[in-house]
Amino acid sequence: xxxxxxxxxxxxQQQQPDPNFQDNPAQPQPWYPPSxxxxxxxxxxxxxxxxxxxxxASDNPQSSSRGQPSxxxxxxxxxxxxxxxxxxxxxxxxxxxxxxxxFNSLDQVKTQNNLRYExxxxxxxxxxxxxxxxxxxxxxxxxxxxxxxxxxxxxxxxLADLERQKDEIMRSYSPAALLDxxxxxxxxxxxxxxxxxxxxxxxxxxxxxxxxxxxxxRTAYHKQAxxxxxxxxxxx
Length: 236
What we know:
Blueprint: H1 11-14, H2 53-59, H3 71-82, H4 86-94, H5 96-104, H6 107-132, H7 134-172, H8 175-201, H9 207-235
Helix pairs in contact: 4-5, 8-9
């Protein structure tokens, strides 16, 4: 989090600036870019700027979302800087540790640091919980591997066998297969009736028995022949 803010001194101290400040080439230079305090390295005062920090902040209402303080936050920072002497302000410009100490003492920075600390603590807690579950995850993964290699393989083989049986049954009861079975049954009845007729001619069977059996065989033959003819006609 990097905020840029103008620095102010009191009215009495503004009248007695340090004559050696940046006029002496041997004097240490500020450790951060000049953009922190504008185009001049001297501490800014209300009389040296034609536009107040409040006006600059209000001209850009989105400055807070881009890493700069909002108008209200900038006003709080300026209020703290106004009570500092010129020496203290110069020290903030030259001493990085002093600047960081002042920066970290701001309420806005403290809030951000606390939030970052809480987020970090929650992240560490979630990471620890995930590590605690790692052993259980490994056990479940091993169980899944065992199931895939043993139980799943057996179940797949059983399923494939049932699929083959289903295909065979479906083929045996297809219209074409049923017509073929009906045709074979009809041919068998015709053959049996012819054999019975041959026995009668050879006098191996008496007439009443022949008539009874032959009539039954021929009746069944003609029924199946008609069914076969109707089935073939319907499939065309």
